[in-house]
Design a protein that fits this description.
325 residues, alpha/beta, two-stranded antiparallel ribbon
């Protein structure tokens, strides 16, 4: 069982890759996830800094490094959408994802974590949040609006789901060639993909492809808090295809907090990761203080020490080996 940390916390704080590697080494973790906010020069410095270190790279979060065509003030996890209905836009997303996969292969990282896009619609999140603040997820006005928006999502979904399948089919072919598993991450908001039903469709339509489920604890908390998904249901359904877990804490509508700083009970998730043999990656918001990062990492480490048990054969408990380098 291994513990890693995403470089997400350092975005905007550490501007040289060498310093970032040294900061991660000081945490005494097993390895890293390289975040989508790494500019190309910093990414190259990180690669150089990793040489001779004992840190492994477990995963890259798409798109990594920041694509050349994306200005810094527009950096986000989805500057290009795999679900875009315009073929040229979708192809751009595929091409840049392949570049991330090639970097992962060069670094002998087994996983690339994907955000799979969304159903294009006016999600009315600000209105929903205001109603949630007033009456909670069970408030009548909140429920009425959410039901209407979810119905709209269902009615609009097909072309975006078809576009996502098109993208993943092409990416799966490249992933086979590069010996990469693509981790499809559960998302925080109702209009994003995949939801529970869409995981079923994607894994069925692309059966045998190097695709896996990637669980995010904070996103799961938000799904449950706002009443638009059941993270336990998704995790239980796809635990046999679980590739990795983003671990962070959350309280109310705020996530990516250090573990132990919010309300998420992590023991069951850590126990599951131990059973299937997948990495736990502490993924915190940019700007997190180093001492809070360390406290969060230590919090997860203590759980790991408590629940750890031998895994006789990880290949029998998950359809994708977490370490095939």
């Amino acid at each position: 069982m291994v513990l890693g940390v995403s470089t997400s916390w350092a975005a905007g704080q550490i501007t040289h890759g060498r310093d970032l590697v040294e900061a991660c080494k000081a945490l005494q973790v097993d390895g890293l996830e390289l975040d989508y906010r790494l500019p190309p020069p910093v990414f190259r410095q990180v690669v150089t800094g990793l040489r001779g270190s004992e840190l492994k790279v477990f995963s890259l979060h798409n798109f990594c490094p920041v694509p050349d065509s994306v200005p810094w003030d527009r950096v986000c996890a989805e500057p290009f959408l795999l679900s875009h209905t315009d073929r040229e836009e979708r192809l751009r997303a595929v091409q840049w994802t392949v570049k991330t996969m090639e970097h992962a292969n060069d670094l002998e990282a087994p996983f690339v974590v994907l955000h799979c896009g969304r159903v294009a619609m006016d999600a009315e999140l600000s209105t929903l949040m205001a109603l949630w603040e007033t009456g909670g997820a069970q408030g009548s006005e909140y429920q009425a609006l959410l039901e209407r928006k979810q119905a709209e999502r269902r009615a609009r979904r097909k072309p975006f789901l078809d576009a996502l399948l098109w993208s993943l089919d092409r990416l799966a072919q490249e992933a086979q060639r590069l010996n990469i598993v693509l981790g499809l991450e559960n998302r925080a908001h109702y209009h994003e993909m995949p939801n529970t039903e869409e995981y079923q469709i994607l894994f069925h339509e692309l059966e045998g492809a190097p695709l896996a489920y990637w669980h995010d604890t904070g996103h799961g908390h938000l799904m449950e808090t706002f009443g638009w998904g059941n993270p336990t249901e998704i995790l239980n359904a796809w635990q046999h295809q679980l590739a990795g877990i983003h671990v962070h804490d959350a309280e109310g509508k705020t996530d990516h907090l250090p573990p132990g700083f919010g309300r998420i009970q992590l023991e069951s998730v850590v126990r599951l990761a131990c059973r299937v043999g997948c990495p736990l990656i502490v993924e915190l918001k940019a700007g997190t203080k180093t001492e809070d990062l360390r406290a969060g990492v230590d919090h997860v480490r203590k759980f790991m020490e408590t629940v750890a048990e031998p895994v006789e054969n990880p290949h029998e408990t998950t359809s994708h080996s977490c370490f095939h380098t």
